[in-house]
Amino acid sequence: MGGLTEDPAFLATTFVVIDFEATTPKGYPAQPIEVAALALRYDDGTWTEVGRSASLIRPPAFAPVTPAVTAQTGLTPKQVGQAPTAAEALGALDRRFAPDKQYLLVAQHAATEANIIHNQREHCPALARIDLLDTIPLAKYVAPGLPNHKLDTLLAHFAIKLPADRHRAYADVDVTAQVFVRLVSAADDQLSDLAALVKIAGRTAKCNMPAQEELFDT
User: How far is Cα 92 from Cα 85, in angstroms, rounded to an integer?
Assistant: First the structure.
């Protein structure tokens, strides 16, 4: 392989592909109803799965599962009605991140995941401080000639089978991980190290952004 996958910082990183399904209640930020995460490490030319997690999430009363959400995801109010709360589900996921290890989250259109995580940060403080990689700008770098860089387009481009449960978090995490692995392989000879990858596809977690100072003293 090339420079990227020989970089010590890249080899020391656990890449956690993450996906949420959510409701979008009027007047409120998106509320998660499902989360899935798949952790990958690269070593000696091979990607290895080192962890996996998935959970339905019971949304608050102001954010019910609507018919439109059911039509897209297949999830029903009954399915999520007995699920763990966001505090329980995201707290359990948060505890899986070791404080002495280096992580990057990976997501398709990572702004969506970044916003949900930030809005739930009281339940997942460790997760909320992990920076992200977005597969869309990386795909634009690797395959600029595609008509668009949506997930379904990338699946077709890389001949990855469309999952039967597309738009369920656990299924989308699996195929996003496959896309990410192929994107890294395609970019390997072009990128010298992890810093170069982050420069192209990185997104700083909101909790890691410097707080804006007041313009005037009060």
Answer: 11
φ/ψ of 52, rounded to 5, equals -150, 140
Helix (H) or strand (E) holding 113: helix 110-119
- Is residue 216 pLDDT above 70, yes or no? no
Instruction: Classify 154 as helix, strand or coil.
Output: helix
Which of the four pLDDT bands, split at 50, 70 and 90, describes residue 59? very high
Q: Are 201 and 138 in contact (CB under 8 A)?
A: yes
Determine the residue type at 85: T
Query: Does residue 143 contact residue 168 with C-beta atoms inside 8 Å?
Result: no
What value, to the nearest 5°, has the Cα angle with vertex 66 and ends 63 and 71?
140
Tokens, residue 72: 């897209």
Average of pLDDT values for 37-47?
Answer: 96
Q: Please check whether residue 3 is in contact with residue 191, taking contact to mean a CB–CB distance below 8 angstroms.
A: yes
Q: pLDDT (tens digit, 9 = 90+) per residue, 189-209?
A: 999 999 999 999 999 999 999
User: What is the tens place of the pLDDT at every residue in 115-158?
Assistant: 999 999 999 999 999 999 999 999 999 999 999 999 999 999 99
Q: Do the bridges between strand 31-43 and strand 13-23 make them parallel or antiparallel, or are there none, so unpaired?
A: antiparallel
DSSP SS3 for 167: coil
The type of residue at 49 is: E
pTM confidence score: 0.94
The span from the CA of 16 to the CA of 6, in Å, is 19
